[in-house]
Amino acid sequence: GKALGAQALKSLSCHLSGIEYGEKGEQKHLPLEESDFDLDALLRALQDFSCRGRILIEGPPMENDALLVQERWAALSGESYPE
Fold first, then answer.
1. What backbone torsions phi and psi does residue 56 show, to the nearest 5 degrees?
2. Contacts for 53 with CB less than 8 Å, ≥ 6 apart
3. Which residue among 26, 36, 50, 72 is buried most deeply as judged by most CB within 10 Å?
């Protein structure tokens, strides 16, 4: 927010996945629950700064991670989504 301004936080576009690292850096994407990524910390920060926008899920399988992010967001924010 300090570097880009409050308006930038209202139109974020992020790619998200768990990552397996090796000797030469990133090896492959992992499902979020199989990685060391702290999803709840990210979502709390996005909520604390009133961020809006989109998160593009890259981890396999994308559908499972997308549902996980949606469920965690709802649990942390108290928002609900249509089923």
1. -95, 120
2. 10, 11, 12, 13, 14
3. 72
Cα-based distances in Å from 74 to 44, 46, 53, 69:
11, 13, 16, 9
Q: For residue 61, what pLDDT is reported?
A: 87
| φ/ψ (deg, to 5) at 46 | -60, -40
Q: How far is CA 37 from CA 10, 28, 50, 66, 67, in A?
A: 23, 14, 21, 15, 16
Q: 8 to each of 3, 35, 49, 50, 56, how far by Cα in Å?
A: 9, 28, 11, 11, 17
pLDDT tens, residue by residue, 23-52: 999 999 999 999 999 999 999 999 999 999
Residue 32 and residue 39 in contact, taking contact as beta carbons nearer than 8 Å: yes
Helices (H) and strands (E) in the chain, counts: 3, 4
Predicted TM-score (pTM) of the model is: 0.84
